[in-house]
Fold this sequence. Notes:
Elements: E1 6-7, E2 30-31, E3 41-44, E4 47-50, H1 62-79, H2 85-96, E5 100-101, E6 105-107, E7 110-116, E8 124-129, E9 136-139, E10 150-157, E11 163-170, E12 175-182, E13 187-197, E14 202-204, E15 208-214, E16 229-235, E17 244-247, E18 256-261, E19 267-273, E20 280-285, E21 293-297, E22 304-310, E23 313-318, E24 326-330, E25 341-344, E26 350-356, E27 359-366, E28 369-375, E29 381-384, E30 392-397, E31 404-411, E32 414-422, E33 428-432, E34 443-451, E35 457-465, E36 476-479, H3 494-501, E37 505-509, H4 519-523, H5 531-546, E38 555-560, H6 562-573, E39 580-584, H7 603-606, H8 613-622, H9 624-627, E40 636-642, H10 651-663, E41 670-675, H11 686-704
Parallel strand pairs: 36-37, 36-38, 38-39, 39-40, 40-41
Antiparallel strand pairs: 1-2, 3-4, 5-7, 6-7, 7-8, 8-9, 10-11, 11-12, 12-13, 14-15, 15-16, 16-17, 18-19, 19-20, 20-21, 22-23, 23-24, 24-25, 26-27, 27-28, 28-29, 30-31, 31-32, 32-33, 34-35, 35-37
Helix pairs in contact: 2-3, 2-11, 5-6
EC number: 3.4.21.26
Pfam families: Peptidase_S9 (PF00326), Peptidase_S9_N (PF02897)
Enzyme class: hydrolase
Amino acid sequence: MNPKRILTMGLAIGILAGCQPQNQFPQIKVTYPETKKSDHIDTYWGENVPDPYRWLEDDYSEETKAWVTAQNEVTFGYLAQIPFREAVRKRLEEVWNYEKISAPTTYGEYQYYYKNDGLQNQSILYRKKIGDQAEELFLDPNKLSEDGTTSLAGTAFTKDGELFAYAVSVAGSDWRDIYVMQTGTKELLADKIVDAKFTGIAWNGKDGFYYSTYDKPDGSKLSALTNNHKLYYHKLGTPQSEDKLIFGDDKNPRRYVGAGVTEDGKFLVISAANSTTGNELYLQDLTKPNAPIVQIVSDMDNNHSIEDHQDGVFFIHTNYKSPNYRLVKMTLDSSNKDQWVDLIPETENVLSISSGGGKIFASYLKDAITEVKQFDYAGTLERTVELPGVGTAGGFNAKKEETALYYTFTSYITPGSIYKYDIATGKSELYNSPKVQFDPSQYESKQVFYTSKDGTKIPMIITHKKGLELNGKNPTILYGYGGFSVSLTPSFSIANTVWLENGGVYAVPNLRGGGEYGENWHLAGTKMNKQNVFDDFIAAGEYLIKEGYTSSDFLALRGGSNGGLLVGAVMSQRPDLAKVAFPAVGVLDMLRYHQFTAGAGWAYDYGTADESEEMYRYLKAYSPLHSLKAGTSYPATLVTTADHDDRVVPAHSFKFAATLQEMHQGENPVLIRIETNAGHGAGKPTSKQIEEIADTFSFGWYNMGIGFPNN
């Protein structure tokens, strides 16, 4: 057993929550729970690696449940003693309480949209008859569970709008059940699909739909390896047991299989992959009974997606021989990749594609900022879309017959607004602007470029109140991700307004490993280049300190999932860089991540300890779990995870927190907050989001010695 270690801190009562000198808040007494150590050892390439907390991987065991309870008692006991925690929660609740509405989509004679009156746990699906302003509640997910932890996790209407299929997630799990509704009467049909996972819903007319799932895994449904993804077809009116296997082979498994049907209903499109980058591509002609599935792309070296089909021509978005992507044309007679013809060639900026009203919309990322151009189907540029400002625009989608579409625009200081766009004229008009308690004119958001360790220039957007004094004392969140070709573009967060109004700075660098500059930028942060991502993040912190935005005493590192790995790695490599660390739902055991759920699919970015001794040693060198060193003073740390996270299993966070509490030497608290009845993040109810953010901000400010409000 680990000796019980006590962090001795005297607790004072009745502190005022105003601005106080740094580190003058009374220290809160923390007694870490005892965590049993086993003598478990794994051997990698002739080297023995202890894994004393392996038993915490058993998410169903009573021992693990008792450990979770004990850790939460300590963590929530600590948080309860932060005198302004409730004030922060109330302020978050105040700013969160505004009407939120989505862009409408048209099916049949109705327009459908989501709306939340402010603090509802889940947004409600409403509809209006076209030409009528009378609003009708269509589906209320809040009634699916008492505590709001059951959420919608995917929806699909038939083209005529008469049938509606929707997937439901319980407690944030990636496993979903699918139901079917008749839209005219809002009555559920008998059809029900249980245990679909990583799935879309693709209708084939009104006959039935395609969905994806895995065979039921051995062991825990929440953590056991899922390796063979399969595509099924469900014919309406039949039981799931009769669903037809369309694609999937036990002898030649694919980890990720997805399907869609072209807008004209003529072709089934199948994408198959073994990792998060690169995919095979298949087509099936739905106009011919029992038509074969034809392979279009036979390797997984690049990314490809069929965006549309028109008169025998397929339009494919690809990074084959084009790391920044291009749009090409293909026919079944000339389907070889080297026969594809450019419609919209590659440029220096990363391209994504959408379509609507018979037009193609090319969205480019220029230093993480959106630019949109409108083309016809012959590839002729018609116009550059005039956007409302500098930021992120998305949603340029509509059916071919529609004359208008709706898109969203946002930035770090611009609440997400919806615009209606006339496709013929190119004119935008404001459709909906949320009424938030935030005045953008009082804040500024600017992009800078700083130099990473190897000389690479990295962009970063820094947001704060106008007139900020660069005195090194501003509480600063440095947020990052850096992986899986994910691009971090400017986006408004109502939660972050509370950080900003309290004198805070919010900084987001576009680290290598992301997709902001295409596939080459992504590859520069993968496998044996992964250290570049951590170096970029460290350099961002050093820039903020050098320029006077903050100092190590007022800097917090934050990131989730792959970003949780980022925070865990950086706090272990540079424990002096920041005062506070927030690794959320992180990938923290880099030697075993591929042994859980779909984790093996992340190997394109990470590599695995099994593939070579060189890769093993590289992974072990930065693996947060294995990099913690005894006797080191680490930042005040609040690890966050959830008991139903079956994407990045909570064992990562459990083992990391136990090891951190064992190794850490110093007065900073190192705690873990484990949410119950929640998953990786999607579908988390509003109430739980507010509570977690309140705890996160309160923990950060308290350990920086900053009150709330800070005035």
